[in-house]
């Protein structure tokens, strides 16, 4: 019987479609789309904090709850939990990491607005992920990759150096707390990116996103022990909460997970640099944030995003080592 099963496995493997350049480009576009949606979410969080007085914990909790409800309605099947059981520790760790990096990002927005925390939280992860990928042999260092990462890192340093004096409406103390939260978010996001692709390959993008969002909602629910987690009673905040949950949690995370299973971690993190570019431009245009007006640092990050979309090779899963 074992001899009969062996050829069957080989036949099924032979029928599996090989990754194509078109699939890699679609995955890169999905990651860029997720970044764009997250960039719009940064502005919504800024509005909910400044104009409606909601706390970052409250916003993060309801964002994940709404997203989890939507994803469970679409992907919640009885077999899902059986598939997750062998990976429960990885799913729990990744979901907790996702909740933490989103909360730190929101805390940064609470202190210094939407643009700068989003830039810091998204420009640093490509550097961190690439260092890990190089050590694991998942990436090859070339001139294009060095130029892209140098642009992202230099842009982040220039942004912090320019605004580090705390001039303007933000006090120096709040500014550096916001920067610290954003850097912490960047480190956690980098770690999340390194494991999310493997989960999406094992479970599928939809089921993986569903499980991670449910875990993140449960983790953020613990913050209710310290602060009340109240659903808004006015129409405008309710609409924004639904937008965050449906669009920036369920839809964007689904696109991110689909892309994560098909491109390398470095390409994934650099593609999502569309997010800070979106947040910077929209914050300047719609919220009139003076700190969001593009300077040399913003242009460095934006340039690295554009270069990546044009030149960064998307590595299919078959070209990467199997997830550990």
Notes on the protein architecture:
77% of the residues lie in helices and 0% in strands. It has helices at residues 2-15, 21-50, 56-75, 78-84, 88-112, 115-123, 125-136, 143-163, 172-203, 205-221, 235-260, 265-271, 274-287, 296-311. The chain is globular, with a radius of gyration of 20 Å. Mean pLDDT is 79; it is low at 1-18, 292-300 and 302-324.
Largest β sheet strand count, sense and barrel closure: none
Low-confidence stretches: 1-18, 292-300, 302-324
Instruction: Give the overall shape.
Output: globular
**Structure classification:** mainly alpha
Strand content: under 5%
Q: In which range does the helix fraction lie?
A: over 70%
Distance between the termini: 30 Å
* SSE run: HHHHHHHHHHHHHH
* Tally of contiguous helical segments: 14
Mean pLDDT: 79
Gyration radius over CA? 20 Å
The number of strands is: 0
Short description:
This protein has helices at 2-15, 21-50, 56-75, 78-84, 88-112, 115-123, 125-136, 143-163, 172-203, 205-221, 235-260, 265-271, 274-287, 296-311. It has 324 residues and is mostly helical.
């Amino acid at each position: 019987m074992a001899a009969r099963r062996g050829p069957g496995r080989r036949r099924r493997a032979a029928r599996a479609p090989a990754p194509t350049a078109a699939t890699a480009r679609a995955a890169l576009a999905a990651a860029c789309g997720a970044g764009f949606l997250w960039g719009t979410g940064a502005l919504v969080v800024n509005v909910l904090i400044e104009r409606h007085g909601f706390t970052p914990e409250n916003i993060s909790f309801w964002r994940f709850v709404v997203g989890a409800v939507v994803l469970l309605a679409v992907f919640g099947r009885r077999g899902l939990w059986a598939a997750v059981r062998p990976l429960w520790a990885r799913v729990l760790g990744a979901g907790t990491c996702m909740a933490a990096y989103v909360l730190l990002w929101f805390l940064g927005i609470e202190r210094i607005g939407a643009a700068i925390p989003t830039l810091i939280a998204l420009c640093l992860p490509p550097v961190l992920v690439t260092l890990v990928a190089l050590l694991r042999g998942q990436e090859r260092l070339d001139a294009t990759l060095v130029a892209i990462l140098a642009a992202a890192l230099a842009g982040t340093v220039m942004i912090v150096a320019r605004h580090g004096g705390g001039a303007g409406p933000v006090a120096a103390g709040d500014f550096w707390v916001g920067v610290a939260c954003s850097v912490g978010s960047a480190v956690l996001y980098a770690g999340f990116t390194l494991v999310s692709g493997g989960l999406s390959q094992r479970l599928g993008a939809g089921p993986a996103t569903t499980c991670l969002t449910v875990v993140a909602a449960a983790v953020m629910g613990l913050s209710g022990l310290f602060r009340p987690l109240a659903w808004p009673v006015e129409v405008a905040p309710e609409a924004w909460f639904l937008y965050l949950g449906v669009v920036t949690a369920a839809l964007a995370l689904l696109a991110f997970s689909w892309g994560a299973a098909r491109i390398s971690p470095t390409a994934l993190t650099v593609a999502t640099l569309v997010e800070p570019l979106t947040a910077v431009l929209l914050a300047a245009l719609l919220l009139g944030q003076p700190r969001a007006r593009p300077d040399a640092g913003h242009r460095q990050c934006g340039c690295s995003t554009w270069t990546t979309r044009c030149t960064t090779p998307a590595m299919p899963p078959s070209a990467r080592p199997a997830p550990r």
